[in-house]
C-alpha cells in the first residue's frame, strides 16, 4: 500500500520558504501570484493487511518523527 | 568530584559534524571527553569494549552539525532514534542533576526530544515537543557573528562563570527561530522568565534587542538559548565552542562553568 | 556484424573490431559513446589482433575511460611537463603524481591540496553538479589519509543581467546557474562539516554557455600516516566502501571531454551524478579511523571512470595486477550490465587495499558507521587485470596497455595581443561608483554567509572581516589546522579580463595577485595548485592560449620558488556560441608562523597612518 | 484560483531525504515500511481569468524557477 503524508505549517506559523518563493516569482514577472505556501510530502510504501492497519502505523510515524505538532498539521492520502 | 574524574560524552550520529571541536574544548579544561556514536549505547553489533551506557558519564553534549542530514526537520531523526531506545536512561541522567548541553543542531535535538523547554521536573523529557526551531525568517542558512546578552540569574549551570554581560558566539544555521505554540507565546515567555530559564538573547552592539541581522533567525523575544526548569539542560543556537580559542574566547566560560559545577557535585 | 551478444546469463557483447573497417571503427566509437578517435581505435584493434580475439564491451569501455582527456591529460601533459612541473621545493612530499599534493606543514604534519573543475555537470544540473564537485574534491584529499579542513570555490558565469532573449537554446540563465551552484555547495559543504572559506565569483558574457565551477580543498594529515594511492602488494584485498553503485554518472568523463551543445542536456542526463552528503560524512569518519589505526595499505577515491580507473591505477602504481569479482559490488538498481557497473561514477565511494588479516576490523569500522563496504577483489603479482562476473571471465588486459594513453603535443598558435583602449581622462568619482557597483566587484556577502565558514572552529581569519555585521571581504582566509599556533592561509585567484587580453601576462598577474593575497594576511607563500579551464584543444589558437598560460605559470613559479603541487586541466569549455577566456584558476597556500599575528583588512585604530607600498 | 504544484524526483535520481527517512523509520521499529520518497508541494494562489490561463502561467513558473527538469518532474492539481 502506498500513502502520501502531507505536512503543512499550522495557520499563523510563518512560512519563509513560501514567502521567498513568492518574492522570487514576482521578481520574475509573475505579478498575478497572490500567495505561495510550501508543503512537504512523504510517499510511504508499507506492507499491511488492511488500510486501517496501515493508517494506524503511519499515524504513529507522524507522531514519532514526521510531524512537530507545535507548528505542523498532517493528513494522509492513499495512492494505492 | 575531582576534575580528572569527570567524564563527558559528545553524542553523534551520521551527519553530526561539530564533535571534534566540542571534544577538544572539554579536553582542554582537563576533563575526560570522547565522541560517542548513539549506536554504542544500544546496538548489538558493537563490540564489548566500545559499548557505553549513560552511567559511564557525568555530562552529555549534543554537538552541532546536520544529524541525518537534517532531513524531515533539523534534529528530528536524531531525537526520534534516541527517544525510542534511551528515553528512560536520559531522563534518569537529567533527574540526577547531571548536565546536558545542546549546541545548534544539539539544541534542535533537545527541543524535538521534548527536553526543552523542560517545564516538568519529574518528567524531564516531554511526550511531545513543546516548542520548535523553525526555518530562519531569511529562509536561508546564516553564518555570522551573534552578540548575546546573558540574562540568566543563576539557574543555568552552564553560564555561572560568565562575567561579561554581552558575549560574542557565532551562529551558523538555517533552522533556529524559536517558536512556541500559537496563541500561547506570551504565556511561554512569561513562564521562562519567571523560572529563570532564559539564558541568552540576541542584541545589537549597543546592547539593545534588535531585529535582523542581530537576531539572525527571527526568534521570538530574541531568544538564543534557554535551559530547563532545573537549570541542568541547556540548549542554544550559537556556538560557544567556536568562540573558545583565539581570536574569540567568550565561549570558554560555558565549558568552565559546567566543569566547575561538576567539581562541586 | 559489429556486435555479438555473448551467451551468458547476463548482458555482455563482443565487439567485432578485428573485422571492422576504419569507418566502422569510428562508428563503434560513436555508437558506444567512447569519444575515441580513429587513431586510438586502431591502437585498440592492433592490441586485440595480437591477442587473437575481439574485446568485450566492458574492455573497450574501460579503455575509453582511461584514455579520455579527463583521466589522462592526453592533450596537456606534454606542455605541463615541459613548462610547469620543474619547480621543486625540499618541503614537497608528493606533487602531481597522486590525487592531491602533499606538502610538509611541520615536524609531524603535512597538508594536502587538491583543486578540480566540475564544469560540464554544473552547466547541465547546477545543484547536483556543484554538490558532487565538493564531494569529489573532499575524496581526493581524504584518500591521502588527510582530514579535510577547508574548501574554496572559484565560480564563473555569464552576466547576471543577461536578457532572456539572448540566451541560446539549451543554456540556462546565469542567475539560475549561480543560485543552483551556490545552493549545491552550501548544502553539501555544510552537511559534511567542512568550512568553505574562500573562492571567487566572476561574471562575463563568455561564460554564458560555459559556466565554470572549480572547487579546491585542503586537508591535514600526520606525515607518517599519509596513504599512497596504490595497492600495498600482491595478496592485498580490495575493499569498496561507501554509496551503492548505480547508473548515474556513466560516461561522465567522456562527456567532460567533449563540447556541450543544445542536445547535451538530454544526452547527458545519465552523466550527471547526485550526491548524498549523509553517506559522505560517515565515510570520512570511517576512513580516517581506519587510517588512524593503520589498517590499510592504500586508498583512492572513485572519481572519473569509476572502478575501471581506480583498480587499474592502484594496481599498476604498485607494479601489480588485480582480480575483481564484479558481482560483489553492491548496486542501486537491478539489471545493470557489467560494463555499466565497471565504469559508473556513482558518488561517495572509496577503494581501500587491506591486508587479509585486517579485513574484518576494517569492515567492522564501516559497519559501525552504517557505511556499506565489501571485498571486491584481490591484488595479484602480474600486471594483468582480470574481471569475473558470476564465475565468467569477462575482462583480461594488460594494465599497462589500458593506462598507456596516447599523448598529443597538439599544434598551437599564439595570437597577437590586442591593444586595449587606454583611459586618459575620467570622472574619478563617477568611475569609482560605477566600479564599486559592478557585479564583479560588489559584495559576495550573500554567498559567503550561506556557507558555514567556521565549522571545525579553526577559521582564525574569516572570509568576512571587521566589526560584526559590517564586515568586508578579506584577501585570504587563515585556518589553524592543528593544536599549534601555526596556520595555513588560503586564496583563489584569476582575472579572466586580463587573461583574455593576454594569456601570458594575464596568468602572470593572477599569480602575482595570489602571492599578494597571501602576504596580505601575513603568510609566507608556500605552494599552489592550478585548475586550467580552456576551450577546445584541437583548435590551435585555444591550444596557444593554454601553452602561453602554462609558460607564464612556470615562469612565475620558478622565480618565486613556489612549487605547483596539484592541479587539473579542463578542456572543451566551448560551445558553438563561445569559448571561455583562458581561465587558469590558482589556489595559493601560505604558511602563517603564528595565527595570532595574522592580519585582517579592517582599520584598527583612529589616527593610524595609511601607507601605500609598491609602484 | 489555487493550485498545488507537486515536484518529485525523476526515477533513478538519488533521494537522500527519502533514504534518511526510511532508515530512521525502520530504526524506530516500523519494519513494514518498504520505501519512502520525498516530494515538495507549492500551493500557489493566482489571479487569472481562466483555468487555462492560470495553468499556462504556472507551467512557466515551473520552467523558470520551481522545477529542475534534469532531475525533477512536476504535475499540477487544482485545489480551487
Ligand atoms: N594543471 C595541472 N597542474 C598541476 N598538476 C596537475 C595539473 N593537471 C593535472 N595535474 C595532476 O595530475 C594528477 C592526476 O590528476 P587527476 O586525474 O585530476 O586526478 P584524479 O585521480 O583525482 O582525477 C593529479 O595529481 C593532479 O594534481
UniProtKB/TrEMBL annotation, chains A, D:
Q: Kindly tell me the pathway this chain contributes to.
A: Purine metabolism; IMP biosynthesis via de novo pathway; 5-amino-1-(5-phospho-D-ribosyl)imidazole from N(2)-formyl-N(1)-(5-phospho-D-ribosyl)glycinamide: step 1/2
EC number(s)?
6.3.5.3
Cellular component GO terms, alphabetical: cytoplasm
Q: What Gene Ontology terms for biological process does this UniProt record contain?
A: 'de novo' IMP biosynthetic process
NCBIfam families, per this entry? phosphoribosylformylglycinamidine synthase subunit PurS, PRK05974.1
Top-level taxon in the UniProt lineage: Archaea
Q: Name one GO molecular function term.
A: phosphoribosylformylglycinamidine synthase activity
Q: Which InterPro entries match?
A: PurS (IPR003850), PurS-like_sf (IPR036604)
User: Top-level EC class, please?
Assistant: ligase
Coiled-coil ranges from the UniProt annotation: none
Which named protein is this?
Phosphoribosylformylglycinamidine synthase subunit PurS
Q: What is the annotated quaternary arrangement, including any partners?
A: Part of the FGAM synthase complex composed of 1 PurL, 1 PurQ and 2 PurS subunits.
Q: Which reaction does it catalyse?
A: N(2)-formyl-N(1)-(5-phospho-beta-D-ribosyl)glycinamide + L-glutamine + ATP + H2O = 2-formamido-N(1)-(5-O-phospho-beta-D-ribosyl)acetamidine + L-glutamate + ADP + phosphate + H(+)
UniProt similarity note: Belongs to the PurS family.
PANTHER family associated with the record: PHOSPHORIBOSYLFORMYLGLYCINAMIDINE SYNTHASE SUBUNIT PURS
Identify the stretch annotated as signal peptide in this record: none
Which terms are listed as keywords in the entry? ATP-binding, Cytoplasm, Ligase, Nucleotide-binding, Purine biosynthesis
Biological function: Part of the phosphoribosylformylglycinamidine synthase complex involved in the purines biosynthetic pathway. Catalyzes the ATP-dependent conversion of formylglycinamide ribonucleotide (FGAR) and glutamine to yield formylglycinamidine ribonucleotide (FGAM) and glutamate. The FGAM synthase complex is composed of three subunits. PurQ produces an ammonia molecule by converting glutamine to glutamate. PurL transfers the ammonia molecule to FGAR to form FGAM in an ATP-dependent manner.
Its annotated compartments are: Cytoplasm
From TrEMBL, chain B:
Q: Which reaction does it catalyse?
A: N(2)-formyl-N(1)-(5-phospho-beta-D-ribosyl)glycinamide + L-glutamine + ATP + H2O = 2-formamido-N(1)-(5-O-phospho-beta-D-ribosyl)acetamidine + L-glutamate + ADP + phosphate + H(+); L-glutamine + H2O = L-glutamate + NH4(+)
Q: Name one GO biological process term.
A: 'de novo' IMP biosynthetic process
Q: Does the keyword rRNA processing apply?
A: no
* InterPro entries, sorted: Class_I_gatase-like (IPR029062), PRibForGlyAmidine_synth_PurQ (IPR010075)
One Gene Ontology cellular component annotation held by this UniProt entry? cytoplasm
Q: What residues sit in the active site?
A: 104, 239, 241
Task of the protein: Part of the phosphoribosylformylglycinamidine synthase complex involved in the purines biosynthetic pathway. Catalyzes the ATP-dependent conversion of formylglycinamide ribonucleotide (FGAR) and glutamine to yield formylglycinamidine ribonucleotide (FGAM) and glutamate. The FGAM synthase complex is composed of three subunits. PurQ produces an ammonia molecule by converting glutamine to glutamate. PurL transfers the ammonia molecule to FGAR to form FGAM in an ATP-dependent manner.
Q: Which HAMAP family match?
A: PurQ
What is this protein identified as? Phosphoribosylformylglycinamidine synthase subunit PurQ
Per the UniProt entry, what species is this protein from, by scientific name? Archaeoglobus veneficus (strain DSM 11195 / SNP6)
Q: Which gene encodes it?
A: purQ
Amino acid at each position: 500500500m502506498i500513502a502520501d503524508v502531507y505536512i503543512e505549517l499550522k495557520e499563523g506559523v510563518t512560512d519563509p520558504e513560501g514567502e521567498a518563493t513568492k518574492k522570487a516569482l514576482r521578481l520574475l514577472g509573475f505579478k498575478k501570484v497572490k500567495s505561495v505556501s510550501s508543503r512537504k510530502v512523504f510517499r510511504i510504501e508499507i506492507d499491511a493487511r488492511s488500510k486501517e492497519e496501515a493508517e494506524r502505523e503511519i499515524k504513529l510515524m507522524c507522531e514519532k518523527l514526521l510531524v512537530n505538532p507545535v507548528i505542523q498539521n498532517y493528513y494522509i492520502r492513499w495512492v494505492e | 568530584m575531582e576534575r580528572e574524574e569527570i567524564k563527558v560524552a559528545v553524542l553523534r550520529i551520521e551527519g553530526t559534524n561539530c564533535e571534534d571541536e566540542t571534544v577538544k574544548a572539554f579536553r582542554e579544561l582537563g576533563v575526560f571527553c570522547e565522541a560517542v556514536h548513539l549506536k554504542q549505547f544500544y546496538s548489538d553489533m558493537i563490540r564489548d569494549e566500545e559499548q557505553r551506557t549513560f552511567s559511564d558519564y557525568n555530562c552529555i553534549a549534543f554537538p552541532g552539525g546536520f544529524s541525518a542530514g537534517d532531513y524531515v526537520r533539523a534534529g528530528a531523526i536524531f531525537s526520534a532514534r534516541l527517544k525510542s531506545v534511551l528515553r528512560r536512561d536520559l531522563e534518569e541522567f537529567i533527574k540526577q542533576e547531571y548536565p546536558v548541553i545542546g549546541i545548534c543542531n544539539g539544541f534542535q535535538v533537545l527541543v524535538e526530544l521534548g527536553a526543552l523547554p523542560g517545564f516538568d521536573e519529574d518528567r524531564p523529557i516531554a511526550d511531545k515537543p513543546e516548542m520548535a526551531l523553525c526555518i530562519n525568517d531569511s529562509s536561508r542558512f546564516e553564518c555570522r557573528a551573534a552578540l548575546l546578552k546573558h540574562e540568566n540569574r543563576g539557574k543555568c549551570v552552564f553560564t555561572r562563570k560568565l562575567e561579561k554581560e554581552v558575549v560574542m558566539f557565532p551562529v551558523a544555521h538555517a533552522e533556529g527561530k524559536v517558536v512556541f505554540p500559537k496563541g500561547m507565546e506570551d504565556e511561554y515567555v512569561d513562564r521562562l522568565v519567571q523560572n529563570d530559564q532564559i539564558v541568552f538573547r540576541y542584541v545589537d552592539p549597543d546592547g539593545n534587542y534588535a531585529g535582523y541581522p542581530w537576531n539572525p533567525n527571527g526568534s521570538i523575544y530574541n531568544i538564543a538559548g534557554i535551559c530547563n526548569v532545573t537549570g541542568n539542560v541547556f540548549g542554544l543556537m550559537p556556538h560557544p565552542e567556536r568562540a573558545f580559542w583565539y581570536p574569540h574566547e567568550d565561549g570558554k566560560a560555558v565549558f568552565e562553568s559546567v566543569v566547575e559545577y561538576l567539581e562541586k557535585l | 556484424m559489429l556486435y555479438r551478444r555473448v551467451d551468458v546469463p547476463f548482458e555482455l557483447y563482443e565487439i567485432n573490431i578485428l573485422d571492422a573497417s576504419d569507418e566502422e571503427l569510428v562508428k563503434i566509437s560513436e555508437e558506444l559513446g567512447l569519444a575515441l578517435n580513429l587513431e586510438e581505435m586502431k591502437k585498440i584493434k592492433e592490441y586485440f589482433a595480437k591477442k587473437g580475439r575481439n574485446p568485450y564491451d566492458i574492455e573497450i569501455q574501460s579503455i575509453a575511460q582511461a584514455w579520455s582527456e579527463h583521466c589522462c591529460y592526453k592533450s596537456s601533459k606534454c606542455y605541463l611537463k615541459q613548462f610547469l612541473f620543474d619547480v621543486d621545493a625540499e618541503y614537497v612530499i608528493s606533487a602531481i603524481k597522486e590525487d592531491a599534493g602533499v606538502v610538509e606543514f611541520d615536524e609531524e604534519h603535512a597538508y594536502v591540496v587538491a583543486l578540480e573543475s566540475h564544469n560540464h555537470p554544473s552547466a547541465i544540473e547546477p545543484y547536483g553538479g556543484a554538490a558532487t564537485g565538493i564531494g569529489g574534491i573532499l575524496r581526493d584529499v581524504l584518500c591521502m589519509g588527510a582530514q579535510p579542513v577547508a574548501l574554496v570555490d572559484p565560480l564563473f558565469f555569464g552576466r547576471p543581467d543577461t536578457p532572456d532573449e539572448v540566451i541560446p537554446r539549451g543554456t540556462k540563465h546565469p542567475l539560475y546557474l549561480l543560485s543552483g551552484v551556490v545552493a549545491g555547495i552550501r548544502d553539501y559543504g555544510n552537511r559534511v562539516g567542512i568550512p568553505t572559506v574562500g573562492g571567487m565569483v566572476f561574471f562575463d558574457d563568455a561564460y554564458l554557455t560555459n559556466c565554470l565551477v572549480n572547487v579546491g580543498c585542503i586537508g591535514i594529515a600526520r606525515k607518517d600516516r599519509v596513504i599512497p594511492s596504490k595497492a600495498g602488494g600482491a595478496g592485498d584485498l580490495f575493499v569498496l566502501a561507501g554509496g551503492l553503485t548505480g547508473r548515474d554518472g556513466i560516461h561522465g568523463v567522456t562527456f567532460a571531454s567533449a563540447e556541450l551543445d543544445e542536445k547535451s542536456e538530454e544526452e547527458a542526463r545519465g552523466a550527471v551524478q547526485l550526491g548524498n552528503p549523509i553517506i559522505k560524512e560517515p565515510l570520512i569518519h570511517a576512513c580516517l579511523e581506519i587510517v588512524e589505526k593503520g589498517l590499510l595499505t592504500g586508498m583512492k577515491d572513485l572519481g572519473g571512470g569509476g572502478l575501471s580507473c581506480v583498480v587499474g591505477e592502484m594496481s599498476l602504481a604498485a607494479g601489480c595486477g588485480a582480480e575483481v569479482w564484479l558481482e560483489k559490488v553492491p548496486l542501486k538498481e537491478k539489471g545493470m550490465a557489467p560494463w555499466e557497473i565497471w565504469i559508473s561514477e556513482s558518488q561517495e565511494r572509496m577503494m581501500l587495499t587491506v591486508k587479509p588479516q585486517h579485513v574484518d576490523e576494517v569492515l567492522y569500522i564501516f559497519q559501525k558507521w552504517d557505511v556499506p563496504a565489501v571485498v571486491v577483489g584481490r591484488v595479484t603479482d602480474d600486471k594483468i587485470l582480470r574481471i569475473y562476473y558470476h564465475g565468467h571471465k569477462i575482462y583480461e588486459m594488460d594494465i599497462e596497455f589500458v593506462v598507456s594513453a596516447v599523448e598529443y603535443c597538439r599544434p598551437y598558435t599564439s595570437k597577437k595581443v590586442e591593444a586595449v583602449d587606454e583611459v586618459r581622462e575620467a570622472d574619478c568619482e563617477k568611475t569609482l561608483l560605477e566600479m564599486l557597483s559592478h557585479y564583479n566587484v560588489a559584495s559576495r556577502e550573500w554567498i559567503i554567509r550561506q556557507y558555514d565558514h567556521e565549522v571545525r572552529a579553526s577559521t582564525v581569519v574569516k572570509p568576512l572581516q571587521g566589526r560584526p555585521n559590517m564586515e568586508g571581504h578579506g584577501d585570504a582566509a587563515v585556518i589553524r589546522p592543528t593544536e599549534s599556533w601555526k596556520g595555513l592561509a588560503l586564496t583563489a585567484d584569476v582575472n579572466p579580463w586580463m587573461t583574455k587580453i593576454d594569456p601570458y601576462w594575464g596568468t602572470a598577474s593572477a599569480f602575482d595577485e595570489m602571492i599578494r593575497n597571501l602576504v596580505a594576511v601575513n603568510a609566507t607563500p608556500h605552494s599552489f595548485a592550478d585548475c586550467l579551464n580552456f576551450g577546445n584543444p584541437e583548435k590551435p589558437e585555444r591550444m596557444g592560449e593554454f601553452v602561453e598560460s602554462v609558460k607564464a605559470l612556470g615562469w612565475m613559479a620558478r622565480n618565486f620558488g613556489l612549487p605547483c603541487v596539484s592541479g587539473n586541466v579542463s578542456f572543451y569549455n566551448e560551445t558553438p556560441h563561445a569559448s571561455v577566456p583562458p581561465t587558469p584558476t590558482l589556489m595559493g597556500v601560505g604558511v602563517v608562523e603564528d595565527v595570532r599575528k595574522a592580519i585582517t583588512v579592517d582599520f584598527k585604530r583612529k589616527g593610524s597612518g595609511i601607507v601605500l607600498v609598491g609602484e
